[in-house]
# Entry
Amino acid sequence: SGSSDEPAAGNETSAAAADVSIFMAPKFTGLAYFEVARAGGERAGEELGIDFQYVGSDEPDATAQVQTLENSITQKPSALVVSAIDGGAVSPSLKKAMDAGIVVVTYDADAEVDARDIFVNQLSYELAASTMLDAALLNDPEGGKIAFVSASPTAPNHTAHVKIMKELIDTDPAYSALSYIDTVQFAGDDEQKSFDIAVNLMQDPDLKFIISSSAATVPAAAQAVVAQGRQGEVYATGFALPSSMKEFVADGSVKAFALWDPAELGYVATMAANQLVTGEITSEEGQVVKAGDAGDFTVGADGELLYDKPLVFTAENIDEYDF
Amino acid sequence: MESVAHEPTQAGESPSPRLEIRTVSKRFDAVVALRDVSFTIAPGELHALIGENGAGKSTLVAIVTGLQEADSGAVLLDGETVQFRDPKQARRAGVAAVYQDPNLFPHLSVAENIFAGEHPTRRGQVDKRAMREQATSLLARLGFDIDVDQAVAGLTVAEAQFVEIARAISTDLKILILDEPTSALTPGEAVRLYDVVARLKAEGTSIIWISHRMEEIRHLADTITVLRDGQHVRTASADDLDDDAMIRLMVGRSVVLTPVPRQTPLGPVRLSVRNLSLDGVFDDVSFDVHAGEIVGVAGLVGSGRTEIARAIFGADPAGSGEIVVDGTPVRALSPRQMARRGVVYLPEDRDAEGVISTISVARNIALPSTAALSTFGLMHPSRERRIAREQKAALSIKAEIDHPVSSLSGGNRQKVALARWLATKPAVLLLDEPTHGIDVGTKAQVHDIMRDLAREQGLAILMISSDLPEVVAVSDRVLVMARGLLVADLDIVDATQEAIIAAATRSASLTGDVA
Amino acid sequence: MSLVRLARQYSWELLLVVLILAAGAWATTLSPFYLEAAQILGSAQYFAIFGILAFGLMTVVIQGEIDISLASTLAVGSVTFAQLATNGFPVVVATVIVLALCATLGAINGVLVAYANLPSLAVTLGTLGAYRGLAYIIGGEAGFTGLPESYTYLGSHLLGIVPASLLVFLLLAAATAVLMAATPFGRYSYAIGNSSPASAMAGVPVKRVRVGAYVVAALTAGIGSLLWIGQYFSARADNADGSILFILTAVVLGGVSIKGGKGTVVGVLLAVLLLGVLSNGMGLANFPGSSQTLILGALLIVSIGLPNGVVRLRSSLSRRQRAATAARLVTDDDARARSPG
Amino acid sequence: MSRTGSIALRVRFLGVVVFLLLLVAAFALVSPQFLTVSNGRTILFTAAILVVAVAGQTIVVLTGNLDLSVGSIMGFTAYVVYDVSSGSPGLQAAVVPLALVVGAVLGWLNGFLVAVLEIPSIVATLGTLAVYRGATAVYADSGQVTSGMIPGWVKSVSTGTVAGIPYYVLIAAAVVALVGWVLSSLPWGRRIYAYGSNPRAARFFGLDPTRIVIGAYVAAGMIAALAGLMLGGQVGVIGSLLANGYEIQVLAAAVIGGVSIWGGSGSVVGAALGAVVLATINNGLVQQQVQEYYRLLIQGVTIILAVGVDAVVQRRVTGINRRRRIMEVAK
Ligand SMILES: Nc1ncnc2c1ncn2[C@@H]1O[C@H](COP(=O)(O)OP(=O)(O)OP(=O)(O)O)[C@@H](O)[C@H]1O
Ligand SMILES: Nc1ncnc2c1ncn2[C@@H]1O[C@H](COP(=O)(O)OP(=O)(O)OP(=O)(O)O)[C@@H](O)[C@H]1O
Ligand SMILES: [Mg+2]
Ligand SMILES: [Mg+2]
# Structure
């Protein structure tokens, strides 16, 4: 992308690791998922001996994130690692950062393509969709009717996931046992709303699965299943932190759900940012990011780096994870 | 703190006073409300407390009942110093007051208003039955039969006043203080209150009675104390003071309401009201007011006088009927439109509706003229202030025009309320109790202003007043209303106080025929 | 003498100036990046939109009412503007349509409050949701990005180092100041805020003026939405969701009485600056978001509560003192009251 | 001998009931499974926590004030109490008293700001909304309380039923009954109504405004804390944003339930029905598979309709009142 020749300008001063500073900005602070990713970023920072800062507002609001970014740009860090709460709204600020010679890496949720150097994508939308459907079938191989719950109509990844899941069910014979309710409900990453929506959805006697890409929604929906005494009849699944789901897996009300390792995602994103800063790589297709024990990753088209390590959690493996 | 001493009391002179006010002083910033006031009240005595507006009467009530604290001095009840924390504590000690402004809870029932703060309880719960029964019997004692379960919001001012009185007499009393209790009552209702007071007196309760009504004081009082500018002027037996003496003591000069015969003939009809009706409020009211004429409207409180004025002014939805101003029929849609046609109204409740108390005198005076004072959407502050200064001079308002109206005395606030309308050069003035709660000195001034407006400037004035001497002294003609009907139209030569009362009450007993 | 009175009349504004200076000094010590004109101006533009809405909300609050639906109105404006842009409307036409639409939404609030006599908090609680829903219906789920340059001019243009949005903000501050201080609308607004029945009795067109305030407020939201598009190059139905709390904070901190009748544009302007300086400084020092929330909340409480607290404390102290020495001092007090002064 | 005051209240209250019935009828027409016992239970179940929260809010609103910090109190209490108690079985048994203490303290601070420092309640609780939320986040330090940290008995209460009725519904009913009884039958409750009806008159009656207002906020804080515990137990995972923005729902329920924003009138049962109305709308729309943003629209319009009906009823009542008076005099 546009800034491929710019890191050179910023690089002259960043020969020593101590001069490198990387700011990580989640969508907003206080959400467990991002805190786990932060831990990964911090680990990378320590390994590299660089300055790592975690910045953000506790308001789930695009304007708040823009102010965070603007304040960050003023401090001229070497790189920004950002999960965009609103890809459109934060892109002007990210472009401004790139113009100022700051490396921009997005993770978890992308901004516009020309507003960042690299997007570390946890999971391609296709893989995310099929992983969630697979997890659903692990809960009950006989299939059944699905209700989708997203965070908001404006969350691009959630919207894409749902769209692809619908397509897969419609076209892929592997998922022919599944059907879905066309209307998507929105719970705004809010536990209480998720719970209420799940309870109301369960009034449909044919409902088998509640699937959500929101890590706040899945445990609340699982709790709703328990509250309604519908264990074994309805399953809440999708993406969630294992720590929030252990109970349900233990009592069998959820048999499988998915995620990736957010800590490692944060780690990889921070590593990629550092290597862009030091000039080891550019954002060109084919470049390889060496992310320590997480492995090597190749930059794809449009600066997209696919992390693509889905984890499916079941009773067998859930105790191996501590996030 | 509280006194528990009980001694046998008898009406008349008693060596040991029931209540003693001893060198009480109270100051509000620069204003000295009370200065070294001392006097005593004997058991079973009706003690009238009089003085001009702002003399400090209500402040004294507030201090005695624990609403405010004196800066210095002491209050002694049965010989012991008392300093009540709040009115509730005062009531427990046998001192209760009906304050000047009504203080009730509009959403709550009559019964609850009487007992709020001191509900009868049974096993910790409010005993609603007992409350209802006691409330009913208290009101019955006052000769009032209203449903104690209804919300106070629906009551008339007079009814509300009786609820307050019922509340005050709901405990065994040593002293009952009534601060202008009859200002909102009709003569008939006032008489009922006189009876109650007489009965309480006979039971040994001392009464402090505050009023601006001379005839009432002459009729009731055993002893009279006069305050002036926060200072005690004199305490004397009622027999020793005649009206003139009282007024002289209050204002330092003698003021009498005397009619001023008109010199000029009446002009053409400026306001003509035909068959005005509002369902359930007033019915088929017709009258004319000429240029240069002051028409008094008398009647019992609640007879619909204020409602008619408000309907003409467009403040309340009008019913059916016709209003003609200077020959042009108009529909009273809103105060704004009526004001534009030259009909203006000075409301009964001056502080709630007559002025905007937190903004300055100048802006208050200019408010109805705002549109005229602006060009291309911008105000002209200099013209605004000029108008204010003109009116201040014309009505001799004692205040800086930049000060908020809230810092003015009652009489001056009333003048500001009037000044705003005069600045718009109106044709018809509707005045609702224009001198309510105003002291005699200012009252006479207001009367002079009214005469001047009518006779010199040709305004048509409709004056609603419950003060019969005033009605008789100021009006050229008197309309009498009773329960929504116009029952008499008396020329001033026939309009004696007796004739007016007769008209107002006679028709009240004939209501069956009409309804 | 008149200086003292002026100082007393504008004591709140003076306090805010002092607070701003203090906050600026604090920000300077917090971060080496703070004290730089371009930085300060650049960060200020992100308060411009909410500042503008604060002026609008102020006109409503001075009349003793409230409008918590403003942020939703802004969202309707931004998605409509973007929708029109996508459909190739000329920017001028689109601007007029957006402002007209926002004014209509404001008028609906105003009519419900003024003519139907409904409590404004409840009405705008309703339209807060209803207008947000409308924004989704107009803007669709995903929203808009990549808007043509002509549409983003107002929010993104720089005049030297001064962002155009900041100029719009100052311009609107001046316009609102004139509106409130020197027009019949302003005179009427303060009167209504003090007492609407008394204003009606004085021939003030209360209902129309009320509706006017809601329209003015909604227009500021409309202008805010035009700036929004320029600043964020995108429009979504959830734009500015939840920001009404911040806007209300600015209005209240600016010395506008929530009960109506009191408040100045200068006060609100200063409050916006204060909030801007504080969050800019804390942001540059990478304070965690939750601490910032905590500090701004505490600032609101302390600045509004402290003056009352001091008065309460002083009066209770003096009362206690008086009570303790009452008996002995009766005569002394009298002497003092008598002495000329 | 008509009793206009109580009639007014009853009519207002009936307004909510009628509205709820209309709503139910409308949904029942379009959806066969709406009008079932199990769905009715579901609606009550999803309403339960809001019912509890709005019961507390009602007390404050009756005094003519507001508590915007209700969601923050819920979140703070749920997070802190469950987090603190997670280690110790003794504390786990005592989460309710613990929460009540926390709620009382937070509510007291609100009351102190409003009654003693005389900050308008909307401003004061706007401030504490931020402060309590910020404090939760600072305390949580990016962590979360997971299902395993919540006492088992709480979880079983949150899911349990007796005779087919969820415990939560019973708790909500008990809270409403208790608050309703306190407000209508205890002197303290009557003082709340009196104060809210005319705060200026209160001191003439020896009612101490400070104590009344602080008392109302303390009670509301304690009830909010209980609602927070219930919510935490229900959703199982508690982050620092739990119940963020809940104040809007609570206010909406109170307004729909006919509690006058300006104080002095309204009932806790009405407010609870307001919460049920909201739950019914959510339930019906989710089942009808109506898109989320129509829900915003419909809820908004409902609120306006509710206050509209309220205003009309009230005007009617005062109209009748006035005429009756005149007629009585004429008789
Ligand atoms: N709370 C207050 N703050 C400031 N000044 C006050 C206050 N209360 C009374 N005053 C002033 O104290 C003086 C005495 O007022 P007070 O109400 O006792 O008079 P009053 O004799 O009852 O008059 P009126 O006949 O009008 O009722 C007046 O100058 C009044 O303006
Ligand atoms: N609430 C108040 N705060 C401060 N000053 C007040 C207040 N009320 C009245 N005053 C002042 O107290 C003074 C005395 O009031 P008072 O009622 O005695 O006036 P007045 O000259 O008798 O007027 P009028 O006879 O026309 O009513 C006035 O100067 C008035 O401005
Ligand atoms: Mg006087
Ligand atoms: Mg008085």
About this structure: Residues 1-14, 507-515 of chain B have pLDDT under 50 and may be disordered. Chains B and A do not touch (no CB pair under 8 Å). The first strand of chain B starts at residue 19 and ends at 28. The radius of gyration of chain B is 24 Å.
